[in-house]
Amino acid sequence: MAEEALKMMPNRNGHSIDPRFIKNLKGKDFVLYSGLLDLGHQIGIQSIHVKAIQYPTKDNGNEGICKAIITSVDGRIFTEVGDANPKNVNAQVSAHVLRMAATRAKARALRDMTNIGMTCIEELGDIETVIGTEDPKVIPMKPKNQRSSNDSPKPENSTAKAPGNHPKKTQGTTEANPATEASDAKISTAQRNAILSISKRKGYTEESIINQIKEIFGTEIINLSATQASSFIKNLQAA
User: Are residues 74 and 44 in contact, defined by beta-carbon separation less than 8 angstroms?
Assistant: First the structure.
């Protein structure tokens, strides 16, 4: 699958990313930061500057934020911001969130420079947290040119809770109950960033994605559960 994605991946000036930098996890292809950097140098990087705009402290939840500015040899400038905190990084690097924030910022800027739409592993942090460990329900996506309406009826498969209408639990039944999805952990910063970043690269406006989430789940993006966000991300990647 990685090889197929590579053939379809647009690259500038005939340069290509080495297949060894493409990793397939649970049927999805991801690019390594080292692969983006390699491709960036093939195209031509004049300079990379990273600036910390928020240092991790106890008061801000130990969240570090960095800004990366990449200048190509032909004078183009690409600027992106990356964030990291102990909740959206792998446990092994939770003590180095500022370094991870810098890597994510550079990865996003490099993706813009190299025209790579594939998600960077380091950009999302813990893959299991972002895309989940189980196959989600298929969520219908509206066409990019179709505006959403907040007044439209909620679809039957919405996971929003209905007052006084809670399914009864049957003893011995192991089937997943959609109504319980909203009770798990809240959407992470990495998942929210993934939704907005992927939708932008897929050609959806932020407004249309936010409205679709309201129609599908009956809530704002910041109130999604981790399970709902995981389902939406996977469906968005396949759109």
Answer: yes
Question: Is 149 in a helix, a strand, or coil?
Answer: coil
CA gap 11, 13 in Å, rounded: 7
Type of residue at 43: I
- Which tens digit of pLDDT belongs to each residue from 74-133? 999 999 999 999 888 877 778 889 999 999 999 999 999 999 888 888 877 655 545 454
Place of tokens 């990647």: 237
H-helix or E-strand containing 29?
A: strand 28-31
Of all helices (H) and strands (E), which one includes residue 119?
A: none
* Paired tokens of 188: 């992470």
How many Cβ atoms from other residues are within 10 Å of residue 31's Cβ? 28
Phi-psi region of 25 (alpha: psi -120 to 50; beta: other; left: phi over 0): beta
- For the entire predicted model, the pTM comes to 0.51
Query: How far is it, in rounded angstroms, from Cα 40 to Cα 134?
Result: 34
What six digits make up the tokens of 185?
Answer: 């952990």
Q: Which two tokens stand for residue 233?
A: 């991300």
